[in-house]
Amino acid sequence: MDLKTNFSLKEYNSFGIDVNASHFCAIHSEDQLKEILKKISQPIFVLGGGSNLLLTKDLNATVLYNQIKGIERVAENEKTILIKVGGGVVWDDCVSWAVAHSYAGIENLSLIPGSVGAAPIQNIGAYGVEVKDVFISLDAIDLNTGKKVSFKKEDCGFAYRNSVFKNQYKGQFFISYVYLELQKEAKLNLAYGAIKEKLAEQKISEPTIKDVSDTVKAIRRMKLPDPAELGNSGSFFKNPVISEEEFQRLASEFSDLKYYAQEDGNYKIPAGWLIEECGWKGKRIGNTGSYAKQALVIVNYGDASGEEVEQHALNVKKSVYAKFGILLEAEVNIL
Ligand code: EPU
User: Fold this and answer.
1) pLDDT at 1 > cutoff 90
2) Which of 163, 235, 260, 316 for a ligand 1 pocket mutation test, highest count of atoms within 8 Å of Cβ?
3) pTM above 0.85, yes or no
4) φ, ψ for residue 249 (rounded to 5)?
5) What CATH number has the domain bearing residue 34?
6) Which residues constitute the domain of residue 317?
7) Which residues are catalytic?
């Protein structure tokens, strides 16, 4: 087994934070993982694309880097296709594969950084679609017993940027394969305003799956920094959901309050707006700061330490609480 010691994670997290893992091992198959689990013990940390992670200190743990690859057709009928995707496949490679084969369902999730195995953990989402909408099941290896377990959709407790893998099962499973159901007849989700506008701009009235994917990519490239150029983890915070009562209080005080009414009567408030209103948008403090085109994103301008980024996030959180009485919750996993 290729177990490395004192291994730098700088190239393995999209924030580009330079910390070391005491042990590191790339995992290429379930069998290899089962063998390794017989030889190592906790603490174990499973790493995917490292794109939803803020590392604030060296990890005294064995990092298992998910490199299980492959996209396989498992079943199909006239309308749908079921695919089995390795947890170590780059999420956007899976999207590109689906788009190239004209299978619909994940084109709105184009260009989201990270791996397929990590996608269900926080139920990744963008432009009106979440991974739960196409998710059927996943295979996982229990890190404590080495046993393989299957989770069906209803076992996963999917919610907005949330699942059982972020809560009661946090750190317990290595997600080896994810099964997704895609549509052969495109049912495109064009509800998101920016997609509609961009398609209209290009005079595309009957978009293909590829048109939607290209449009999403263009929107993302306009608003979100490329981690290869500027370290970041996408949205740093979740959009907070508040009650009707709290919403009324805020709406009476802030006439330009931005919000999305939820089906359950609550209101989701764009955290980017709250942060911008507090004056953070485009503000740089040392090596870190809030991104100029999207205040919800925190960036590393070069040599930021994880602690520096965490401190900035804390300052943002404090000022949003002071102004709006809303406590932001981090979307990224802070270690
Ligand atoms: N806004 C501002 N200022 C900002 C940013 C946003 O006022 O600096 C307001 C605007 O009113 C804008 C609204 O927020 O219309 C929504 O902004 P945007 O469309 O950029 O979406 P978001 O709510 O900030 C969420 C996801 C993104 C996802 C987009 C598109 C979360 C935490 N983030 O961001 O996901 O790409 O919607 O669907 O839900 C991620 O999770 O890492 C991520 C990038």
Assistant:
1) no
2) 235
3) yes
4) -60, -45
5) 3.30.43.10
6) 231-334
7) 161, 235, 331
